[in-house]
Specification:
Helix content is 31%, strand content 31%. With 737 residues, the protein is an alpha+beta fold.
Length: 737
Amino acid sequence: MLNSARRAFVPLQIRKTLLMHPSVRALSTVTDQMRNSRNIGISAHIDSGKTTLTERILFYTGRINEIHDVRGKDGVGAKMDSMDLEREKGITIQSAATYCRWGQNHINIIDTPGHVDFTVEVERALRVLDGAILVVCGVSGIQSQTLTVDRQMKRYNVPRVAFVNKLDRMGANPLKALNGMRQQLKLGAALVQVPMGLEGEHEGVVDIINREAVYFLGEKGLNIQRKPVPEQYVEQCEKYRAELIERVADIDDEIAELFMAEEEPTPKQLKDAIRRQTIARKFVPVFMGSAFKNKGVQLLLDGVNDYLPAPPEVRNVALDVSNGEAEVELKCDGGAPLVALAFKLEESKFGQLTYVRIYQGTLKKGSMVLNTKTGKKVKVPRLVRMHSNEMLDVDSAGAGDVVALFGMDCSSMDTFTDGTINYSMVSMFVPNPVMSLSVKPKESSGIANFGKAMGKFTREDPTLRVDINEKTGETVMSGMGELHLEIYVERMKREYNVECVTGNPAVAYKETITNKATFDYLHKKQSGGSGQYAKVQGYIEPLEDELIAKGVEFEFDNQVVGMNIPTEYITSCEKGARAACLKGVLSGNPLVRVRVVLIDGAAHAVDSNDLSFQLAMQYAIRQAVKNGAKPQVLQPVMSMEVEAPGEFQGSIVGALNKRGGLILASDVNEDGTQVLIKADVPLVEMFGYSTVLRSSTQGKGEFSMEYKDHQPVSREQQDQLVKAFLAKRQGKEEEED
């Protein structure tokens, strides 16, 4: 490449010839493709209209010819809900990928579920995307899963635009949604549009940046008309435009200078500033509309192009495994060594489908790639672009793209390179399961297919865990909630023809301690020849609230001075401490939120070994917990929201109180027709609640819940759990005798 200083001396004709050279032309095209690409996800609380919005986006961009609704009367259903279960239940269960073109830009879109039970689908999508659309219900405002999605976007540093949806619905209040974003989500949000009319009178939006009214005419909103702002909206337009400029001036130097000089920015200056600060994650532009009524979607697509980043504008890092996992910044360059991340797996009758985000380099069909996790080289047999459940074969894909590989054996979150580098991408956050279910095939003939189904489902979904209880022989399936497990049981029946018998779900109880307790334990065993000898001294104490809030469950602190315990046995002590915490003394559940401090001990020149110190620590901790640490049982508590007609408020609150719920808030909308109740409720009390709610509200009530934290059970409940655990243990001992 010629630098700018020398370019002036190259004759014009030679410059033209150079620019026409295939390698230069190819480099230019790839760069343009990257700059004109967007990788976005659509995320929100359940039933906020994500899939409906995606359906309209696909229609307006020409990817589909007809609009079908999530619960359509024609029985077709939305394009992105390709599973029969999704169409029957009217919810998104799996994230689905598609692509489209709007203006000059190629847009990869992932539509994600809103139900908390399928939150890992949102997690893995946001891990690999460059931007997102946060959909907020114009009636309900910020809801429980909106808070979860917001945390996920912040966790992966994803810039976003917001879309306040459902402004055609009774009780729509876009300012409530805006204030919720500012107060509850702590976002620097401001309107870039104001709606013209709400509920049945919603007819379009006012673009406050360009000061024009936009109408979406025709049955499907295809005829867009831009007109001067109607007189009744002029004052509102100017008010929110001034607020927009003021908020952008607070964070953008260019607009701040104009603001201080009392000069008004041009629409281009304002848009450029909004783009800069959106990509910097300091600002969220808020769009308005109704996806169901086909209003506002095209302007939202303009906003995706205008404000969300292209792949080269996002900083991505990998870990260099060959250099002590040092951070390496990746270049969004098709000519660089390949780095790609497998973020989602699907099993089909044709083999495994692996969704891949390419961070740098080019992935080609038929090429050999290195799986840095396994160290194996594998061939790329088939490369496709996904449009929901449809596939388009492609020969290659470059940096910044999202594609899928067919027929490649790998695991979720595996990193692929071309073999010249040994990089690994950071994995995603996977929440722990909160509910378990014993499950077995109804007929013995279904055992083989049952095993296949479990293998497939656990590869697809990292929040689904399957374990065999060694003592009972039962298969225990653990997941994120009742619906999560129910869906997989139903999928086994439909996809593998295996009908299952399920047992009562088991709640993931834990144990902790409330008091500091010391230990001084000698483990000594002699049976001829070299025996076992290990002495450990120290204490166990509860972790601080700050560490618990960060998710820390166990901490080991070595404070041994000198060589009373040889250095090589310190790790043995930690292993023993961790092993002791796998099963608490009260109910047999994991012991968490503890710090084990090792102060001193003793070793024998001949008899001390790894096993001796592991066993010494196990016995020491169990003894300390029993004798002075005052253990208690913890249970999972769910943060839940119930939405129903106001007339049922009393019965809902009463039912939650009966279930040990703590009512946090009860908000009635302006006309008193709907009530939103927020509460914290123990998970063990929530089994079957969906049936109770439906019957008590004539089918009009809805609820959602997500895991909040583990909290102590009541003394009475703890006594029952301890009694049940002792009886179960005694029964097993009698069986063994």
